[in-house]
Amino acid sequence: MPANAPRRKPGRRGRLPFWTALLWLSPALVLIAGVVAYPVVELVKASLGTYSITGLRTGSAGLGNFAKVLHHPDLGTVLRNTAEWVVLVVAITIVLSLGLAQFLSKQFFGRRVVRWAIIVPWAASLVITARLFTLLFDFYHGLIDRVLVALHVLPHPVDFLGDDHWTMPSMIVVGVFVSLPFTCYVLLAGLAAIPDDVYEAARIDGARPWQLYRQVTLPLLRPALLVASVLNIIYVFNSFPIVYTLNDRNPGFRHDTSITFMYKLAFKSAEHSVGMSAAAGVFNVLGILVVVLAYLKLVSWREAVR
Amino acid sequence: MALKRTALLGGAMAALVGLAGCGGGTGSSSSGGNGGNGGKQVSSIKLVAAEYSADHTKAFWDQFAKTYKQKYGIDLNVQIISWDDIAQQSTTMVQNNNAPDILNINYYSSYAKDNLLYSADDVLPSSVQSDLLDSFKISGTFNDKLYGFPDLSSARALFYNKTLFQRAGISAPPTNWNDFEADAKKITALGGGVVGYAEPLGPEEAQAEFSIWTFNNGGTWQDDSGHWTINSDRNVQTLQFLKKLAVTDKVTQNNPGKTNRTDGAFPLFENNKAGMIVGFGPLSAQLDKDKKVNYGIAPMPYQNVSGPQTYGVTDYLDAFKKPGNQQAVKDFYELYYQPDQVNTWIKSEGFLPVTKSGLQVFSSDAALKVYIDTLPNIHLTPNQDPTWDKVLLAVQQQIGAAVAPNGDPKKVLDTLQQTAQAGG
Fold first, then answer.
1. Of A233, A276, B78, B312, which residue is least crowded by CB atoms under 10 Å?
2. Are residues B354 and B390 in the same domain?
3. Are residues B255 and B359 in the same domain?
4. φ, ψ for residue B146, nearest 5 deg
């Protein structure tokens, strides 16, 4: 170390002077201030104001916006939808990705093509993907109904996006579809990081394939699983385009998650209130923070990433 | 491993706070100046305009900006925004104290109420004021002053599929509601996935679909003195009729309360799958381009009123008060309402005029006759009431629920009436 910093006085080994350190850190600090701190300050400021429908701030609201959000008649529905959406999309994605990643980690003819194919949904814009699915799900012209009816899976066509029983499941299908690539590749990287000699040792000890998977692969995959599920929880929770696009034909808040709820409060519903929407935004940030922390605690993440 | 832990937590924090930025935007204290003539004159103004069509809107405004610059020596910066985003973006602009000088959008009275706009006395040449059609003048007047300067208009009428009518043995389009219902049943009975009537009551433009039906039943949103009449008997009867078509008669497409116009109802009519639909100019343009449908346009069927009523839509060019921009804004309107400007544009977009002089120009067009005849008596939504800007959103988000199998038209309209009376 001292060799790399010849000018530094002896006795202050390994510590830069405060101002020098600040200088080196400043780009990161400016970025954090601009991208993280500033929006949060503005969000909180907006949540404390009263706004006209035009967007003009007309005064202070105190905590009124927060109270209005908490008393919103559809809040319960929205929270239930959010929980359903996040839990099911993340859980199904992880389970499917485990299988897919396992499959893709094997050598087989055309593996490269399959790996590329799985990246595609990731590369496409979410809005375009969601739009595409509205066409596929369409009651009159959609391919999905046509195929399922032809295969006798369904006795008659289903209005996937208009029938209240089917709207959420349809959205979840699309949510899983777009979450798979990322998750799959995180797990694939995790699998590649497991050394072969561990398997060899286990096999010599007489482990059967299923035992091998349960007792060697899964525990060693834990860090990757943790990263995949935490990031997925955040992405899926914050996913706006899918829920908004697939649900845009439905009136009210029946199938909204907290993110689209927030957007509709600001621009689409009769509330049309920037302040209320900002208050909902504050709740969203706090909510996801609590969920992530609780999840990390639950899986005792300190051990997992050790 | 503290480092890994911090990195994971840091990444998580950054990802979720990213959302915070999208949520609220910023909150500036006030917007717009007091305007007026005082101080320095601006050398450029900004127009934010809605995109009516990808082909014509930008082309028109670019050419307009060039002419404007030549004539007045002031730069006109044009920003075109899609209809999906313009309400959101203009709200954010005002919120950030960054309003344009002129905004082309479908409402104005909330801005006028917030004292952000010039009135006609400030910026609209008197020759233009007297040329505007009366119905648009009324809908553009807030607190006895004209603030909503209409840019163009459209009117709706009943489109019917002549081929399907012939196959069902119907000789002429229906003129009253009983015939309408009977014809819709006959067309639905043709089978093959054909529906009698495509009924879009989804959030996109539910107010339009409901308006045209209830106007043709003697219903209104407000009475003449500006009191809300949303749950009037006529309106309830109208919504019950629309529910009956969907639920009892089953002559509409599936889930009409969850069908939007452009991506739900129009495609049915464009593919010969719907016998009737309420349409307007741009739909004709599309149908004429595709040449797949043999269609006719007729006045709406009506009951309880003396003749067919037309529902019209107009959008506005709102003039924002900003220091030193009054003369430049005034010049803008002087040029916009020149017949060769406004009429050329309206024609290219397939809409209808808003001026008496424009009406004369367009009346020679046979294809537009069905609309033009009704234009002077057109019914509009109560745009002059700032409360409407919120009621409109409530209508879009709620009225569709009334035509579901378990929907309750009376209850939905009662709720909307309460919303309106509470000020939105």
1. B78
2. no
3. no
4. -80, 115
Inter-chain touch A251–B202, beta carbons under 8 Å:
yes
**pLDDT tens for residues A17-73?**
888 888 999 999 999 999 989 999 999 999 999 999 999 999 999 999 999 999 999
Q: Is B26 on the interface with A (CB under 8 A)?
A: yes
DSSP string for B259-322: --IIIIIHHHHHTT-EEEEEE-HHHHHHHHHH----EEEEPPP-SSSSS---BEEEEEEEEB--
Q: Which domains does chain A have, with CATH numbers?
A: 75-255 (1.10.3720.10)
Residue B145: inside a domain: yes
- B339 CA: distance to closest CA in chain A (Å): 32
Contact flag A36-B87 (C-beta cutoff 8 Å): no
Residue B220's φ and ψ, nearest 5 degrees, are -145, 165
In terms of residue numbers, what domain contains B91? 44-154+313-377
CB contact under 8 A, A272 and B16: no
Instruction: For residues A142 and A135, give the distance between their C-alpha atoms in angstroms, rounded to a whole number.
Output: 6
* pTM for the model: 0.85
Chain B segment 140-199 residues within 8 A of A by beta carbon are: 193
The parts of chain B modelled with pLDDT lower than 70 are 1-39, 424
Rg (CA), chain B: 24
Return d(Cα B165, Cα B275) in angstroms, integer.
7
Contact criterion met (CB < 8 Å) for A288 and B87: no
Chain B residues with CB inside 8 Å of A161's CB? Answer: 258
Q: Are strands B274-279 and B195-197 parallel, antiparallel or unpaired?
A: parallel
Please answer yes or no on whether A39 and B20 come within 8 Å at the CB atom.
Answer: yes
Return the structure tokens found at B130: 């007297």
Structure token digits, residue A261: 């709820």
Residue B192 has phi, psi (to 5 degrees) of 70, 25
Q: What's the pLDDT tens digit per position in A110-165?
A: 888 988 888 888 888 999 999 999 999 999 889 999 999 999 999 989 999 999 99
Beta carbons of B334 and B319 less than 8 angstroms apart = no
Count CB atoms within 10 A of the CB of residue A27.
Answer: 9
pLDDT at A306: 53
**Count of structural domains within chain B:** 2
- Kindly state the tokens that stand for B118: 């010039």
Same structural domain for residues B416 and B302? Answer: yes
Does residue B134 sit in the same domain as residue B164?
no
- Give the DSSP letter of residue B54: T
Separation in Å, CA of B386 to nearest CA in chain A = 9
B256, closest residue in chain A (CA to CA): A162
Distance of alpha carbon B102 from alpha carbon B100, whole angstroms = 5
Residues with Cβ within 8 Å of residue A151, at least 6 apart in sequence: none
Asked whether B370 and B298 are in contact (CB, 8 A), the reply is: yes
User: B247-259 burial, b for 16+ CB within 10 Å, e for fewer?
Assistant: eebebbbbbbbbb
Cβ contacts of B198 on chain A, cutoff 8 Å: none
Lowest mean pLDDT among A9-13, A14-18, A65-69, A287-291: A9-13
